[in-house]
Design brief:
Layout: H1 2-31, H2 47-50, E1 52-56, E2 60-61, E3 68-74, E4 81-84, E5 99-102, E6 127-130, E7 135-141, E8 152-158, H3 161-164, E9 168-169, E10 172-176
Parallel strand pairs: 1-9, 2-10
Antiparallel strand pairs: 1-3, 3-7, 4-6, 5-8, 8-10
């Protein structure tokens, strides 16, 4: 049951956004009824996939000190885009494990944050708009969500694309001394 709820929440933002886009397309098509040939209505499923996300973090950090990861979403298109902030640093704290953090042996670092359950569809304030040719950024301290206690090299990979819709994300490596 818990797995089913997790999968449902992973796709909630993207499905809601797609449904809203399809509704808007249908409304626009009805308003343009004077056109000689009607084009088929399709949902814009690529809105968040146009966005490009860059993660960055300091190369080296002393053990026990904050590991600030910067998460920047760029919109290279000529049109405003949006994405769901759920499962991203834009929530300003860890509400779920949306990063996969592994040590130099490839072993997963334990997530120690909360695991929030969400209502669907997401409310309008769950979306962040990114202006055409613009970007938005957020920072989060990895230590507040992950048990990074020992010196070593850690790899951070973003895993929240099923919720946020952000698919083009790099990975970062941090050395804890």
């Amino acid at each position: 049951m818990a797995v089913g709820l997790s999968i449902l929440s992973f796709t909630a933002c993207q499905q809601s956004q797609n449904a809203q886009s399809a509704h808007n397309d249908t409304t626009q098509q009805a308003q343009d009824s004077t056109a000689a040939v009607a084009e088929p209505v399709t949902a814009d499923t690529s809105a968040a996939s146009v966005l490009q996300t860059v993660m960055s973090a300091p190369e080296k950090v002393k053990a026990g000190k904050p590991i600030l990861l910067k998460f920047t979403v760029n919109n290279p298109s000529d049109k405003e885009q949006e994405f769901c902030k759920w499962h991203t640093p834009f929530e300003q704290r860890f509400m779920n494990s949306f990063f996969e953090v592994t040590d130099s042996k490839g072993e997963a670092v334990q997530y120690k944050g909360v695991m929030a359950k969400r209502v669907t569809p997401p409310p309008a304030d769950a979306y962040i708009k990114v202006a055409a040719k613009g970007n938005v950024s957020a920072e989060i301290d990895l230590l507040t969500g992950y048990n990074i206690t020992h010196p070593g090299t850690y790899k951070v990979v973003y895993q929240g694309e099923g919720v946020s819709g952000l698919t083009k994300v790099n990975e970062v490596t941090v050395v804890v001394e």
